[in-house]
């Protein structure tokens, strides 16, 4: 009997398990992205539409709770592909770098919410999320410009700076085709195109467990982002402007 046979037989199984872990992590990421527009719209309606009937509010809160539960449940998918060394501080767009938690915000200290009126550049290759973000941010009186990718974002930022109206804040997705959110943030900061960058990620926040932000990033929010977290961040930036 060949003593090496069991090891050889296990190799394909090990590869299959790794592929399964990556797939589960990618699935969690996609679901977080899909949940994000719904989470923002539900939060916005509950916060702003005060004429809603008690029954309508109850139904929307049920939807809100369901979104939260699904997002929290996705953590188990991410745990499958969590790296052994969870102390890394580098966010990236590969499966297995982090664990999503609903409404998680990791940021530098912020001042209390105050008056608003920022110039904000939103960057995301998901048109549904971009639309939801635009509605949410614009509703509070901020001037919003959208870009579907990092290249267009840099063009818009350069144009705004040349016009003497640079963006106060850029909110960008992490994972995009071409240049990702981290590389975009580096370009924006080193070229003096904005002072603040918020990174949205569906991969989670484990790399920030020790409170260390990636270079050029002022704040990280996991998807689905929540209205209260966005409003607090925007107000904090407005105070320090």
From TrEMBL:
Gene3D superfamilies: 1.10.287.130, 3.40.50.2300. Keywords: Phosphoprotein. Pfam families: Response_reg. The modification 4-aspartylphosphate is found at residue 173. Residues 119-238 form the Response regulatory domain. Residues 79-108 are annotated as: Disordered. InterPro entries: Bact_response_regulator, CheY-like_superfamily, Sig_transdc_resp-reg_receiver. This is CheY-like chemotaxis protein/uncharacterized protein YoxC.
């Amino acid at each position: 009997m060949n003593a090496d046979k069991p090891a050889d037989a296990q190799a394909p199984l090990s590869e299959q398990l790794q592929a399964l872990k990556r797939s589960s992590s990618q699935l969690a990421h996609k679901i977080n992205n899909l949940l994000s527009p719904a989470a923002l719209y539900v939060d916005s309606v509950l916060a702003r539409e005060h004429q809603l009937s008690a029954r309508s509010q109850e139904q929307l809160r049920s939807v809100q709770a369901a979104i939260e539960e699904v997002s929290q449940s996705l953590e188990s998918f991410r745990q499958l592909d969590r790296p052994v060394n969870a102390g890394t501080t580098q966010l990236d767009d590969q499966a297995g770098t982090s664990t999503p938690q609903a409404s998680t915000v990791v940021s530098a200290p912020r001042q209390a919410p105050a008056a608003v009126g920022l110039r904000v550049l939103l960057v995301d290759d998901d048109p549904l999320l971009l639309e939801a973000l635009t509605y949410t941010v614009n509703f509070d009186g901020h001037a919003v410009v959208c870009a579907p990718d990092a290249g267009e974002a840099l063009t818009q930022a350069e144009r705004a700076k040349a016009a003497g109206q640079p963006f106060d804040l850029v909110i960008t997705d992490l994972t995009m085709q071409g240049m990702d959110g981290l590389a975009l943030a580096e370009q924006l900061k080193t070229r003096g195109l904005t002072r603040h960058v918020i990174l949205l990620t569906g991969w989670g926040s484990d790399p920030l467990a020790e409170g260390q932000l990636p270079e050029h990033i002022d704040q990280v929010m996991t998807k689905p982002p929540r209205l209260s977290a966005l409003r607090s961040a925007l107000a904090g930036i407005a105070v320090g402007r």
